[in-house]
Give the backbone structure.
Amino acid sequence: MTTHAASAGPMRIGLVGAGPWARLTHAPALAAHPGAVLSGVWGRRPDAADALASAHGTGAYTGEEGLDALLAASDAVAFAVPPDIQAPLAARAADAGCHLLLDKPVATTVAGAREAADAAERAGVASVVFCTLRFAEGTADWIAEQAAEGGWFTARASWIGALFAPGTSNEFAASPWRREKGGLWDVGPHALSVLIPVLGDVTEVVAVRGPADATHLLLRHTSGASSTVTLALDAPEGAAGTEVEFRGEKGVSGLPAGGGDAIGAFGAAVDALSEAARTGVAHPCDVRFGLRLTEILAEAEAQTGPRRP
């Protein structure tokens, strides 16, 4: 299938989603990107789509016909919707010839993630999954450096949030899918997206439930190294924090503090998608990688059972 991408000029990127993530990151990043044009905003709620589109000087779309119209007006589509809504819409966008800038996780079922990946492959479109630390200034280079270093014996990662703490003002606390699926699915992709490029793919998974929504993973990687991962969204505020540490032949290396803002990281993901679309060379963090993340997390969930909010 011939995609919409032109050989020259900015990439027209439509935004599917009009919630907090779209408003805080996707829309401002796309509107400010010198190599992209925000070609429109599609939302399930017309008022939200209208407000976000108006704020960035573009058109609003809603409904089935509106989605088709946005796809026709776009070279690529960025997604900021819940994962199990994202996957079938991504397959639809790929079938329409649009490149895909996906959020993580691609889906919370293997079948859903595979549907999106197969559609992208069938259509010959480029794809990038926005795992923030793979694109953020300060962390993307660090991950590449650890992968090049090699010789790692083991690693540990902790992604612990207090999203649902009493009195929280975080808009994402109102997200039904995050409350249902917990830290395993929301922050698990972040941890894996750092560990896998450095230690290799996961060959074995052992998962155990902790308190609240906490999940503990013990992983074996193709390099022979092992890693441990703790994931949670529903921890006490005093327990919150993010850490990644590799230990090996040449010592210990920890994830740098900070890492840049989400808007800057999303802009880098747009650059990566444009490059993949231009060259035809798949990005390492593409929809097939997103499918692999879903496979690993689904295996962990099968061992622990679904979260009980």
